[in-house]
Fold:
Amino acid sequence: MHPRMHNVFLPPYSPFLNPIEEFFSAWRWRVYEHHAENQKALMTAMDAACEDITGDQCRGWLRHARRFFPRCISRDNIRCDVDENLWPNRAQRMDGQEDEDGDQEREGSDRD
Structure:
């Protein structure tokens, strides 16, 4: 490595820190609810989904992400509070989570 450069490791992918991901998730579900069966119906569903999402929702996603920024800057170990609220039991969570030692836990993995 070059002496004037240093590595900065990014946190794991965290869609809850990116408001556009929150928007896209909400939009995608609204499109899905229309059960479009052809291209014209899909385009109509996509337009309708855009109309359904409000400015208040967008501001809420921004507030939610911004709430974590100080902890990200200080390099705290952050996890989306949604995961802990939906699946308080770690064994029930769908994807891997890091444990206290930074090791990756996977669903169904045996730990000694």
Notes: Strands lie at 97-98, 104-105. Confidence is low (pLDDT under 50) at residues 96-112.
